[in-house]
Specification:
single chain; 338 residues; alpha/beta; 12 helices; 10 strands; binds adenosine-5'-triphosphate; binds magnesium ion; binds fe (iii) ion
């Protein structure tokens, strides 16, 4: 079966054609980063308008690059949530009109299920599996007892990892999005400024990054006030080490507790070199296989939405044509039914 998938939840307009839930026939992504860069973050009104301007072209291009015709498409998938409500709406309207015109099913898809199932486009997921989702808006440990069934066993209580990276970068006056810049600075550092780690309760798989962020801002303010030179690289490395140690330790504890053989890393922060290296080491010692999609499938794209939607297509669990965008859509409730 062939799915045409659409993703417009944030600042990427994307369309993809996926065969059999695994094979990417096309995956066209148009990023608005340059437009939002000068505001230091995504401006929702502008994001929606840009999606409207490009969506038709992006879909046409995805179909063209797939080498297939519209009649070959079996279903339309679209991100239903979470995301910016106005941005989601643009994708949903386009998806509905195509589903209606082509008289094929519509599949409203969860954005984070997409990030997780990006792994299925390049690897084979073995159940039970555990996903570490680290993105701009989410930091979650998700247990998959079986295919398409999601259970969140840990989540951030305040900032998402990507958000913390972006805020720290902003305080260091680095360009948006700041994650890659902090990553690069940290790699160049010769030493690390020691910063706190938020472990929370001993048995908790939850995360908290706002205390760490405040600690970083305090260091920056103090050095500026005392007119001292700030060792930015050492600060970036200290921040990255704190984030990485907590993510890795909690993920591996969850791996042992739930007896899974596989850890799936996903979301935009999966591109982080410090995190990849630490997870690679620890998973090797624990004899757990670590799956990471290529960077192009870690950041927002429609191919991952097609991969997640395939779970529902296989079971003929379709959405109604009055589907609405839902900024707070629950991952667990989106699970497939058996
Ligand atoms: P969500 O999926 O939660 O709705 P999003 O789609 O906006 O959020 P992604 O596109 O998955 O988020 O990821 C973007 C985030 O990843 C940004 O915060 C960015 O700074 C961060 N990021 C990208 N590369 C790196 C890196 N090398 N190191 C750390 N963070 C990074
Ligand atoms: Mg984005
Ligand atoms: Fe995302």
């Amino acid at each position: 079966a062939v799915i045409l998938a659409i993703e417009t939840s944030c600042d990427e307009t994307s369309a993809a054609v996926i065969r059999g839930g695994k094979e990417i026939l096309s995956n066209v992504v148009s990023s608005q980063i340059e437009i939002h860069e000068r505001f230091g973050g995504v401006v929702p009104e502008i994001a929606s308008r840009k999606h409207v301007e490009s969506i038709t072209l992006i879909i046409e291009q995805a179909v063209k690059e797939s080498g297939l015709a519209l009649k070959d498409i079996s279903a339309i998938a679209v991100t239903q949530g979470p995301g910016l409500v106005g941005a989601l709406l643009v994708g949903i309207v386009a998806a509905k009109s195509m589903a209606m015109a082509l008289e094929i099913p519509l599949i409203g898809t969860h954005h984070i299920a997409g990030h997780i199932y990006a792994n299925e486009l390049v690897h084979d997921i073995v159940y039970p599996s555990l996903a570490l989702v680290v993105s701009g808006g989410h930091t979650e440990l998700v247990l998959l007892e079986r295919e398409g069934v999601f259970q969140i066993i840990g989540r951030t209580r305040d900032d998402a990892v990507g958000e913390a990276y972006d805020k720290v970068a902003r305080a260091l006056r680095l360009p948006y999005p700041g994650g890659p810049h902090i990553d690069k600075l940290a790699a160049e550092a010769e030493e690390a400024i020691s910063l706190p780690r938020a472990w929370l309760e001993a048995d908790s798989f939850d995360f908290s990054f706002s205390g760490l962020k405040s600690a970083v801002l305090a260091v920056i303010n103090q050095t500026r006030m005392k007119r001292l030179e700030l060792n930015e690289a050492a600060l970036a490395r200290g921040f990255q080490e704190s984030v990485t140690e907590v993510l890795v330790t909690k993920s591996l504890r969850a791996v042992r507790q739930y007896g899974v053989k596989q850890l799936l890393l996903c979301g935009g922060v999966a591109a982080n070199r410090g995190l990849r290296a630490a997870l690679t080491d620890h998973c090797a010692s624990a004899e757990v296989s670590l799956l990471i999609p290529p960077n192009s499938l870690c950041t927002d794209n429609a191919a991952m939405i097609g991969a997640a939607a395939h779970l529902k297509l296989k079971r003929k669990q379709f959405s109604d044509l009055d589907l609405k965008g839902d900024p707070g859509l629950s991952l667990e409730q989106w699970s497939v039914s058996y």
